Amino acid sequence: MADSMLALTYSRETDPWETTTGLRKSEVERPVLDESKDYHDRSNVLIQPMMTGFCGSDRGIWFRSAFKDMIFGSLDREKKSTRVIGHELLGKVVAVGTDAKRTYGIDVDDVVSTESHIVCGACYQCRIGDTHVCADDKIIGISQDGCFSELVKLPAKALWRTNLDKIRPEVAAVQEPFGNAVHACTKVNLRGKRVAIVGCGTIGLFAVAIARAMGANYVIGVEPMENHAEMARRLGADVVLTPEMSGKSHASDKELTDRIRKLTDGVGVDVALEMTGVNSSVNNALRCVRRGGDVILFGLKSGDAVIENFDRLIVDGISLHSVIGRRIFETWHITRHLLESRDPNIHDLVWEVILNRGEGTMVNFSDFEPAAFEKAIKTFPKVVIRHGV
Ligand SMILES: [Zn+2]
Ligand SMILES: [Zn+2]
What we know:
Elements: E1 4-11, E2 24-29, E3 44-54, H1 56-62, H2 68-78, E4 82-84, E5 88-96, H3 98-102, E6 111-114, E7 117-118, H4 124-127, E8 138-139, E9 152-155, E10 159-161, H5 169-172, H6 175-185, E11 194-198, H7 202-213, E12 218-222, H8 226-235, E13 239-241, H9 254-263, E14 269-274, H10 279-288, E15 289-297, H11 310-315, E16 319-322, H12 330-340, H13 346-354, E17 362-364, H14 370-379, E18 383-386
Parallel strand pairs: 11-12, 11-14, 12-13, 14-15, 15-16, 17-18
Antiparallel strand pairs: 1-2, 1-4, 3-5, 3-9, 3-18, 5-6, 6-10, 7-8
Helix pairs in contact: 6-7, 6-12, 7-8, 7-13, 9-10
Bound molecules: zinc ion (ZN) (2 copies).
C-alpha cells in the first residue's frame, strides 16, 4: 500500500489483552494533512520521528497491566482496532497546516518534541491555566495514535521546539519523562532542604539529579535494585538505602525510616518524593518526613492503598501533593534550562548514567524484534528507539 506505513502497535483484534504481551510491528494507514476534508488539519503538523523513548506506561501496555480501558474506549470512539503506541518524541516536521505555521510558527524541518497530553483548551481547568489537569485530555499513543511510527500527526499547540546544538537527540527524546521529574521537584521549594527520593526507577533517577540542581542540600535515595542504587549515587544521591521488600504488605519499613531519621539528626527529611506507587513505599515516604514536611506523590498503582497512622498526617502537619504530567509549558521551560545547562551537567549525566552512553539502550526501529526489545526494557531504566531519520 502506498498510503501505509510501519508502526509499533497494539491491536485488539490480533492481540487479545488477556492472553498476549508485547507490541507488533504492523502496517497502518499513513496520516495525511488535508484541510479541505478536516478543518482540524489547519492546526496540525506531520512529524517524522527521529528518536522516541519507551515509557513506563508503554511497559504497562507491553505487559497488559495498564491503560486497557483508555485504549479500548478510544478505539471504540474511532471505530478501529489498532492503536499506534508511543508518546516520547523527538522528530522533524515534514508538513504543516496553515494555522500551525501562522499561529504557532511551526515550519517544515523544525525539530520538535511534544507534550503527550493533548488538552482541550475549553474545560474549567484549561480556562484557569491548569491545562495539565484538563478534564478532556487525550494522551498520545494511548487515546490517539502515537509516535512509534514512520509518521505522526499532532496539533501544533502540543509541540515543543528543541535545539539539537544544545541537547543531544537521545536526551532530547526523553524530555517528556524528564519533565515528570521536573514537575515533581518543583512542586515545593527544595533549596537547602533534605530530600528523600523513595524509589529510584527512571523518574526517581531523574529526580535525584534534578533535586540536586534545584539546590537540595542532602539527597537520600531509597532503592532495592543495586544497579539502580548505583545509578542514583552517580547522579548525585548522598546515600542510597535499601528498603525491606515486604511483598504485598502495606506496612512501612521501620528500620529504613529510623535510618533516614538518624541521617537527618533525628528530625526526618523536609521533603519525601514517592516515585513507586507501592503501598509500603508510600508509608515509608510518609514516615520518613519531618513534622511539617511535604510528601510528593508521583508513583501510580491502581486500587486502594492503606495509610498507616493517618492521624500523624494531621497532628504532624504533613502536606501531601500529587503530581501528574507536566505544567504546560512551564515545566518544559525548566526542563530545557536544566538540560541545556552544563552547570550542573544533568545532560551528560542522563546520557552517561541513565542511557549508558547508548550501549544497549538504543534500538533501531527497522530492527525491532519483540524478544530482544523486551530484554532491553527489562535491563535498562530507559530505552530509546532510533528511527533512522
Ligand atoms: Zn511517558
Ligand atoms: Zn481542558
